[in-house]
């Protein structure tokens, strides 16, 4: 690997092309901390889609964000060139490409960023002048280690290796206005990637009811705008008090709510990783996805899954009978939650 463009001079202006999913973006935060530790005086700018950009509006490793809206003003070829021109005017010294797609490398190349560093995924080696080769073993790493290793191979090291998200005082005050003084038990029944990652709503409701009764705790439901119906179904099936915020919050508001929760019960999802970054105890239900590479990077976690002949399949929708999820009973999740709450 050539590191000439990184070793010839200290970069003063760095752009980071972020990943496109909330959960993946959270798992890049140890790498971002390493980048900040290595270049404490540089301006570090996060380039990401509108949702992911919100994660980094307030973050110790990031000075500011640039939004890459491929469904809006940056749509199509014209929008791509508009984004490239915006980057060119910024005169960045270094682009760190955490996103694996060739489009990220092409954008940095067209923007004439002199040093372009990233993994050689998606056939983009020729567009990088600080390439890092990906091996079969690399693909088996937990995602946090995958991104940290990219920077380590570039000679960029530092930070404490922990996930990191932050909220500001106004966001904390807003969360307190919704939750009051109580530390709620949060339930996140959705998963943006697809239905194959979602456990059965009725069982989420059963778990939430039993935990509410056992620990005299209110239940908070979280989720995105496309999951409102799931939230309504769970709330209607429950006997206890529910704060149903599904589809009613921004990314940063979800961050604030989860940061003030005592436990999260969730599918493999973006909010799962958000809670992990705030060191909230998590019970995570896994089915179609690989828990070895995407489980919460935290010690206070219980993974609930069942061995089946077809999981992990990594598919968005189950082509058969969803057995990896139907095999998980409410009692399995309740037992895991009690272990964390009573530890």
TrEMBL record:
Keywords, A to Z?
Glycosyltransferase, Transferase
What EC number(s) does the entry state? 2.4.99.24
Quote the protein name from its UniProt record: lipopolysaccharide heptosyltransferase II
| Pfam families (alphabetical) | Glyco_transf_9
State the source organism's domain of life: Bacteria
Keyword Glycosyltransferase among record annotations: yes
Q: Which GO terms describe its molecular function?
A: ADP-heptose-lipopolysaccharide heptosyltransferase activity
Please give the catalytic activity noted in the UniProt record: an L-alpha-D-Hep-(1->5)-[alpha-Kdo-(2->4)]-alpha-Kdo-(2->6)-lipid A + ADP-L-glycero-beta-D-manno-heptose = an L-alpha-D-Hep-(1->3)-L-alpha-D-Hep-(1->5)-[alpha-Kdo-(2->4)]-alpha-Kdo-(2->6)-lipid A + ADP + H(+)
Q: Which organism is it from?
A: Desulfuromonas acetoxidans (strain DSM 684 / 11070)
What does the entry give for GO biological process?
Answer: lipopolysaccharide core region biosynthetic process
In which family does this protein belong, per the annotation?
Belongs to the glycosyltransferase 9 family.
UniProt GO cellular component terms: cytosol
Q: Does the keyword Glycosyltransferase apply?
A: yes
